Amino acid sequence: MSGKDSRGTAVPVPHLAESLVAATVGKWLKQPGDYVVQYEVLCELITEKVVVEMPSPIEGTLTEFVVAEGETAQVGDPICYIREQGDAEAAITAPPSDSAAGHGVSGGGIPSSAAEAAAPVAAQGGEHSARFSPAVLKLAAERGIQLADVPGTGLGGRITRKDVLAYAERGPASRPVAPAQAAVQPSAPAHASYAAPSAPPAPAESEYRSPMMPQQAPAGPVRSTGLHLTSNPPTPFSEADRVESRGEYFIDVTPVRDTIASRMRQSATEIPHAWTIVEVDVTNLVQLRTKLKDEFMRKEGINLTYLAFVLKAVVGAIKDYPILNSVWAVDKIIVKRDINISLAVGTEDSVITPVIKKADQKNIAGLAREVDELTRKARSGKLSLNDLQGGTFTLNNTGSFGSLLSYPIINYPQAAILTFESIVKKPVVINDMIAVRSMVNLCLSLDHRILDGVICGRFLQRVKENLESYGPDTQLY
Fold it and tell me: 128 catalytic, yes or no?
């Protein structure tokens, strides 16, 4: 945690993984002026192929953004400032300075009208009298609201910005909801100096930074609708911009897509790819799955897919040919002892490769559970960085969308990737007789610096043998 200054305590980008050096702020879930409880989510951080939630390390009031949505920060750099409760109370109760008095501002930078509006509340509020954030005081002053009348829903009955806004919306119809620069009613003379035309205009709520910083004029008119009071909210950096006159539109490259492009370019340019294919008769596997899937669903509550059987067959073949479980290190080849299978999962806008750790220690049922959990987490955006690290060999179920033959690009820096294509019934010659069998293609892309055709041919033959060996007596557990 960084040190404190007049803005509060700096909240840095955490060190989420060993290889992580930077992260991009995807979306802020809190705004300046919001009170944040410890471990409450501040924002979404976009890292390599995953979006993680950034919890608040401390409790207090969010005072300022350092990194805006769509901007990138290095690990350890501050992304926002939070003023802790003790600091906020000291800032609110501090006596006004000489320089502040000359500008109609109370000690800590709160407009004098806000301080005066809060005075009756301070006299009645008891233990909660100092629990109003600067943003809440300012908001109440702008709308002529007595905070004593506002029910608080925050921690310990604290009044939040949302409480003030909700009270203003459901209040009497005669109650004016005045913008920051509008004149106030005669019944609130304490606001006159703050709303006078000669006074500097108050900033929009989302632009409020710190009681210790000078007020700045807003860039545009203050909105009274939406999640937060903000002027001209920025367009999300991932949103498409259509150009109708030219019959085309542009899509900004997101950090996830940029990472995929970088890795694929690195793999295609650095790794000399070669590929090979075998055809496998999976008729017995189809019959086995049909026999067991209903019972497995009742017992485990998840679908028994072909992928679990394929994973078991691939892991068994890697045990026999461990060179497939390796990476290139220029002057040596590093063979990994743990077999961690990266599973390619397609989402709406990208492909993610969560990892099944130590897949060689799991049975078919255990692999099925891992597949179900990782795919659900991937498609709901709940994967952690740990779920994406440590893969040693990649399997892609391209048959799920009907592919019959594919040439996959290796998941850098691994040595190989295998695709399981679509199962198709076709006539096959068996003992000089034609029979209808369920057939599937297995396509293997290999790093020709590490692997050659002979070893990969034997590996694929072993996978084929393992898949064709499934029968009615195969155990899932």
Answer: no
Residues 430 and 422: their CA atoms lie apart, in Å, by: 21
Q: Which tokens is 274 given?
A: 């070669």
Q: Pairing mode, if any, of strands 393-396 and 341-346?
A: parallel
Torsion angle defined by CA atoms of residues 367, 372, 377 and 378, in that order, rounded to the nearest 10 degrees: 80
The upper half-sphere exposure of residue 126, i.e. CA atoms within 13 Å in the direction of its Cβ, equals 4
DSSP 342-406: EEEEE-SS-EE--EETTGGG--HHHHHHHHHHHHHHHHTT---GGGGS---EEEE-GGGGT-S--
Residue predicted with more confidence, 269 or 123:
269
Q: Give the tens place of pLDDT for each residue, 167-211.
A: 888 764 444 444 444 444 444 444 433 344 444 444 444 444 444
Q: From the candidates 77, 128, 273, 448, give the one annotated as an active-site residue.
A: 448
191 is annotated as an active-site residue: no
Cis omega (within 30 of 0) for bond into 57 = no
- Cα–Cα nearest to 391, from 413, 407, 368: 413
Collapsing DSSP to helix, strand or coil, 30 comes out as coil
Which residue among the candidates 294, 338, 349, 452 is catalytic per the annotation? 452
